[in-house]
Amino acid sequence: xxxxxxxxxxxxxxxxxxxxxxxxxxxxxxxxxxxxxxxxxxxxxxxxxxxxxxxxxxxxxxxxxxxxxxxxxxxxxxxxxxxxxxxxxxxxxxxxxxxxxxxxxxxxxxxxxxxxxxxxxxxxxxxxxxxxxxxxxxxxxxxxxxxxxxxxxxxxxxxxxxxxxxxxxxxxxxxxxxxxxxxxxxxxxx
Length: 190
Description:
This protein is mostly beta strands.
């Protein structure tokens, strides 16, 4: 258990343990008023539920650092219980429940490397690469004269997600997708 210093709470990205849950500080504001103890107003995201809350920490309040561990893992497959990963060091299977990976599920390709986040030895989330390459399996055919800036069309990718791509993208193309926004970035093959 590590106790954080009051000034550590100013740093966006700091992960703390609050009410026995891991929270990441996503916004902070230091305030000092006349003849009062300083306060740090924060917005924190619960790393398990994803909910955002606001809280003001008072000077002298004890705040514990969260015991967060990140491990590299290889995605194996999805089933009704969730996503299954393998730890490449121990070959153990790690299961992340469906509700934890719901938004990231479409970016998981069999055999792909990712990072699993653990809190107190329990898997609570994924840290995906910022950009991934996926194959287009379904797209409306292009029309002569289509340009890169001329519009977009939906395309189904190998993991089952659909993204809007430029009109010149066709079935079989490999495209890069931003895992934060779910948007097309560029064509990976020429």
